Amino acid sequence: MALSPYFPEDHSDSPHSSLLESEFVDWDEETLTATMRFTVRREMTTWRGGVQGGLVAGYLDDVMGYAYVASTKGVAAPLNLELSMSLIRLIPEGPLIGKGRVVKAGRKVIFLEAELLSEDGKLMARATSTALPTPRPTATETGMG
Predict the structure, then answer these.
(1) 3-state secondary structure of 37
(2) pLDDT at 143
(3) DSSP letters of 64-123?
(4) How do beta strands 76-87 and 110-117 pair?
(5) DSSP states of 126-143 as a string?
(6) In the CATH scheme, what is the code of domain 14-137?
(7) Mind listing the pLDDT tens digit for each residue in 41-98?
(8) Residue 39 near residue 96, CB atoms below 8 Å
(9) Cα 141 from Cα 65, distance rounded (Å)
(10) Whether the predicted model's global pTM rises above the 0.85 cut
């Protein structure tokens, strides 16, 4: 069951959402902002005790992507052309809040941004993305379901 009419019901079946332990929390139609909660597992961290950089990009990409999916009421999904991120602080094991926003969505290009925050609101990482709008694939269509 979807938490929002703007969020796809099959989200929990997505392999990457399972890996990232993503949970859709809220959608703000006015600001085109999705809020998600992630649970960072030890397996996502390095010997420094923080999430490996490429995996940080995965969290940021997930929340930006679902912001666009929600903005299209589940009809479309972004296909990244470019993702740029800044790692502000070491992200430790535990809970993490993601906020992703659609900056501008046109017929041929989408601009997205995201932030990862600690539970007490400290900025941990941020990203921007340029993407192409595409029809949102389903597990059945891709042969994964």
Answers:
(1) strand
(2) 59
(3) HHHHHHHHTTTSEEEEEEEEEEEE-S---SEEEEEEEEEEEE-SS-EEEEEEEE-TT--E
(4) unpaired
(5) EEEEEEEEEEPP-HHHHT
(6) 3.10.129.10
(7) 999 999 999 999 999 999 999 999 999 999 999 899 999 999 999 999 999 999 999 9
(8) yes
(9) 19
(10) yes
